[in-house]
Every structure is written in structure tokens, then in C-alpha cells.
Design a protein that fits this description.
The chain has 157 residues and is an all-alpha fold. The protein has helices at residues 3-21, 27-37, 41-53, 57-74, 145-151.
Length: 157
């Protein structure tokens, strides 16, 4: 056996360990479920792995189904059907492959977004809009404080 064969067998063993030991609906359990049962890119990956270790994808499917049903029966849940259709999960989507029956799923609580429009405060401003100010701090032509003191007659020593 070459080293690649051992590598892919260890990947397969990790997926079986995740099915057997991770809590239901955890991230790693759902990823393992998707690897064994989902279609799309998961099926392509499963077929490529089976080609490397010289087995058939249905062999993996049956072995994984045995592990899952044993765990489900231990917890008093109904066994999963061998013909359960699985949707393909995308590469960046959460791995929710729809394996759990409807009575096992927890409802998803979405945050509620409510738009509230606040009326602006209406204040009466004093003065007219054409009022000119005697002092403008942003005037680029105003004298500097040192020039202002000299013009007022206060010589700096």
C-alpha cells in the first residue's frame, strides 16, 4: 500500500469518528453527514475518495447509515431511512444536510429588525439667516493672537 492510500483511509476514519462521537447537529457531525449522504460536490469528493481506496460509494453509504441508526436507536430516535434524499450543501454554506427528522430539529430564531423613524426636533433658532458675525474663527485673514495683542497696544517683552 502506498502512503496516499493510508492518508485517505485516515480521512475516512475521521469522518466515521465524527459520525459516531460528535453530538447530533454539531458542525463536524453535519459535515460528516454531508460527506456520506449529500449530492453535488460532496458526491464528487466521495467518488474520488472511493476511487483512491478501491471501494464503491454505496459501501460508504451503508456503513455510515449503520453507525447513524445505531446512535439514533440508542437515543430513542427513529432510524434514518436508507433512501433519505440529501440536498447538496455549497462550499461556504453551513453544513445542514437535512438529515434530522422534523421532530428533532430546533426552530431557527432569526433576529427581528424593526425600522423606527424618529422625527427631528424642531427648534426655533434665534436671529435671522442673514446675520453676520463680528468674529469668525475660521477667517483665514484674521490677525493672529500675537498680532492682535500688538495692535491693542500690549507690546510683548
Amino acid at each position: 500500500m502506498d502512503s496516499y492510500h493510508h492518508l485517505w483511509l485516515s480521512v475516512l476514519q475521521t469522518a466515521f469518528n465524527d459520525l459516531e462521537h460528535e453530538p447530533f447537529n454539531s458542525y463536524w457531525h453535519n459535515e460528516a453527514m454531508s460527506f456520506f449522504f449529500a449530492s453535488g460536490p460532496w458526491a464528487d469528493s466521495r467518488q474520488a475518495l472511493c476511487d483512491m481506496i478501491d471501494c464503491h460509494p454505496h459501501d460508504l453509504h451503508r456503513s455510515a447509515l449503520r453507525v447513524i441508526n445505531r446512535r439514533r436507536l440508542e437515543q430513542g430516535l427513529p432510524p434514518m431511512s436508507p433512501r433519505t434524499p440529501q440536498p447538496a450543501s455549497g462550499p461556504r454554506l453551513p453544513a445542514t444536510s437535512g438529515i434530522a427528522p422534523a421532530e428533532d430539529r430546533k426552530p431557527v430564531v432569526w433576529p427581528r429588525l424593526v425600522a423606527a423613524f424618529n422625527e427631528p426636533e424642531r427648534r426655533r433658532r434665534g436671529g435671522s439667516p442673514a446675520k453676520t458675525w463680528a468674529y469668525n474663527p475660521f477667517n483665514p485673514f484674521r490677525p493672529l493672537p500675537s498680532e492682535h495683542n500688538q495692535a491693542a497696544g500690549g507690546e510683548a517683552d
